[in-house]
């Protein structure tokens, strides 16, 4: 019997070929692992910052805290997209990431304006500066996880989320700056820094939108016959 007799394509393979895991399943698992690890890092960062916010009341920290929480929640649509193994779902997840960034910018901006109208200087400045440093470290870690996975898996959604977290790391340094300026008596600088963070988040929104929009096409139509 010739070797050609062993060539029997099976349309019901379901992602396996002669005992080997299909590439799409490997990509799905790798994407979910990256998303879960980044979520754990950001969740821990958010919890620590929330504790410090309750003690300090800094609007600059609140802007960073709200954004980090929203950033962590973007793991849900991304994980679902990788689980479904669908380019269309992954693109929709990228759009959900952009929406979450925009909402967090609006929330932080409104709170900053309210603090300008009704000033309330933060307390526990040393703890506040520490929380900003923790936010920087957490976002840098999440950015590295997402960007490396995004490049390896060719995922615009993960790349956008990685760029988002990398920029957030520098935004967190604004919290440290807020603690410094309040310490020298410039109380009004705290909500102004909160507003600056909000504007920067809006810039991130636009950049992330462009990244997702320039991604690969959605699921191709099924072949006929």
Q: What is the CATH architecture term?
A: Up-down Bundle
Q: Find the count of extended strands (DSSP E, 2+ residues).
A: 2
Summing up helix and strand content along with how strands pair, one would put the structural category as: mainly alpha
Range of strand content: under 5%
> Element order, helices and strands?
EEHHHHHHH
Helix content, binned percent: over 70%
Tally of structural domains? 1
Task: Return the CATH class.
Answer: Mainly Alpha
Unreliable segments (pLDDT under 50, ≥5 consecutive)? 1-19, 219-225
Radius of gyration: 22 Å
Q: Please give the alpha-carbon distance between the first and last residues.
A: 30 Å
Under CATH, the topology is which?
Alpha-lytic protease prodomain-like
Oligomer: single chain
Q: Could you say which overall geometry the principal axes of the C-alpha atoms support?
A: elongated
Strand order of the largest sheet: 1-2
Number of helices: 7
Q: Note the main sheet.
A: 2 strands, antiparallel
Query: What average pLDDT do the residues reach?
Result: 77
What's the layout of helices and strands?
Elements lengths: L15 E2 L2 E2 L1 H34 L2 H15 L1 H10 L2 H31 L7 H29 L2 H28 L5 H25 L12
Antiparallel strand pairs: 1-2
Structure report:
This protein is mostly helical and 225 residues long. The protein has a single domain (23-213), classed as Alpha-lytic protease prodomain-like. It has 7 helices and 2 strands. A hairpin with a 2-residue loop joins strand 1 and strand 2. It starts with 15 loop residues before the first strand and ends in a 12-residue tail after the last helix.
């Amino acid at each position: 019997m010739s070797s050609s007799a062993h060539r029997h394509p099976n349309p019901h393979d379901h992602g396996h070929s002669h005992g080997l895991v299909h590439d799409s399943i490997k990509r799905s698992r790798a994407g979910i692992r990256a998303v879960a690890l980044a979520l754990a890092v950001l969740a821990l960062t958010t919890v620590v910052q929330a504790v410090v916010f309750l003690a300090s009341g800094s609007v600059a920290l609140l802007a960073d805290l709200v954004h980090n929480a929203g950033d962590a929640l973007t793991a849900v649509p991304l994980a679902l997209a990788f689980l479904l193994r669908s380019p269309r779902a992954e693109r929709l997840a990228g759009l959900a990431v952009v929406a979450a960034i925009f909402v967090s910018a609006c929330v932080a901006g409104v709170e900053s304006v309210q603090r300008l109208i009704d000033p309330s200087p933060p307390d526990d400045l040393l703890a506040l500066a520490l929380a900003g440093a923790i936010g920087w470290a957490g976002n840098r870690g999440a950015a590295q996880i997402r960007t490396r996975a995004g490049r390896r898996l060719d995922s615009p959604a993960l790349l956008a989320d990685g760029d988002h977290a990398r920029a957030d790391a520098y935004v967190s340094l604004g919290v440290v700056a807020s603690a410094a300026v309040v310490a020298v008596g410039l109380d009004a600088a705290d909500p102004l820094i909160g507003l600056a963070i909000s504007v920067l988040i809006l810039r991130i929104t636009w950049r992330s939108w462009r990244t997702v929009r320039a991604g690969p096409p959605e699921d191709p139509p099924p072949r006929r016959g």
